[in-house]
Every structure is written in structure tokens, then in C-alpha cells.
Amino acid sequence: MFSYYGSKSKIVGLYPPPKHSKIIEPFAGSSRYSLKYFDREVVINEKYEVVYNVWKWLQQCNENDIIKLPTPKPKEDIRSYNLSKNELEFMGFIINRGSVSPKNKVGNFSDGLQNTLKTISRNLFKIKHWDIRLGDYTDLENEIATWFIDPPYQFGGEHYKESSKNINFKELSEWCKIRNGQVIVCENSKADWLDFKPLKKIQGARNTNTIESIYTNYEMDGLF
To answer: Can you name the residues that pair with 134 across neighbouring β-strands?
Structure first.
């Protein structure tokens, strides 16, 4: 629905489909997995209040609320428009793809904003029934569900906001292992806090290559 650092938009189709009628994302971010299977019962949980606020705002928006937003040009400052706090935060993510926090000035690669807004407006219906929560992942009840767990990475988590990093990975590892239902955990190949298997090589920023990896409690064919 909006761009965010660490989004799985390009590789979400590689992850196993949900085996349960309920999906829980303890680290919501841009929730690409839940959006792919939006018709399920969905719980997204986010500790970073700005991201939580954007999701809650989008949930109550109608199509016109999105379509009417401005489409500023590269390097333009969106604070020059008469936007609400929620609109500024939402626009702050989509004007700079892959950001960890909202920006005020439009990035050089934010072309096609009008089409982006149209696409978002047409997809608002997908999130109307979602349960959107603010809190730590440890606040979640251990329900039978498909748990899509995409935390700040062990190596690279410094890019996230203070409210979303400083993860105790030993504790997170044990927490993941005892979830009820299907467990899918995202990381890269450098991580060692679970038995991660390589999923796909991707090109990151500044032409660096990383290998996205996965831990799951179900057998999975076709790994990289």
C-alpha cells in the first residue's frame, strides 16, 4: 500500500502461501504478505507509531481521500501543501521509496505519483477488515495462524527507527519457535539466530547483492 524499507514487494510471491485462515504480521512495515492474501483474517502489529498511524488512516480513507492528494515534482517540499499530519506522513513514504521514515522532499525516483495514488485508492477495500495494532511483538497472543515474521534484520537493523530496532534475537528466536501454526521468518543469509535457508539473491542499494533467506516450520521446495 505504501513503500517502506525492507518491503517484500518484489519477492512476496516466493514465500509459502498461508495454511491458515488467519495471518499475523508481528512487524507490520508495509505488510506485503498480508496484502497478497488480504481476504484472510489479518492482524498486523507495528511498534513504530508513525507506520501504525499511516495504516490506521488508510483504513478509514475512501478513494477520493487518496486521489485528491497532490503529485509534487522531484525535490519539491510537500510541507508547502495544505496537508494534515496523517497525509504528510503517508505522502512522506510514497515520495521516497524504501524510506524508514517519512520524508519532506520528493526524491528523484518518485515519478508516477499519480498512478501510485490511483493504485492505492483502488486497493483500500483490502484492508477495511484488518485488525491493526500498535505494540511490541511480545504483546501478541499465541494463536493458531500463519505467522509472517519480518523483523528488522540482525545485520542491517541499524537502518530502522529506534522504536523498531535493538531486537534481542535470542529471545525472538525462541518466541518464533513456539508460535502456534505456520511460521515464516524473513532474514538474510548473514543471520544466525534461526536455521535460515537461502531464498533468492537480490540486488540492493548501491549495487550490493544480498541473499534473502527464510526459516519455516513446514517443508518448502524450490529454495535458491
So the answer is: 46
Strand partners, 200: 212
Integer angstrom CA distances of residue 103 from 4, 75, 92: 12, 11, 4
Q: Which residues of the chain have pLDDT under 50?
A: 162, 164, 206-207, 222, 224
Architecture of domain 12-216: 3-Layer(aba) Sandwich (3.40)
Give residues with Cβ within 8 angstroms of 29, minimum separation 6: 4, 5, 6, 7, 46, 51, 150
Domain boundaries, the chain: 12-216
User: Residue 209 corresponds to which cell in the numbers above?
Assistant: 547483492
**Taken in order 115, 97, 14, 204, is the CA torsion positive or negative?**
positive
70 φ/ψ sector (left φ>0, alpha ψ -120 to 50, else beta): beta
Note the pLDDT tens digit of each residue in 1-46. Answer: 888 887 888 899 999 999 999 999 999 999 999 999 999 999 999 9
The rounded distance, in Å, linking the Cα atoms of 109 and 96 is 7
pTM given for the model: 0.90
Tell me how far the alpha carbon of residue 112 is from its chain's centroid: 21
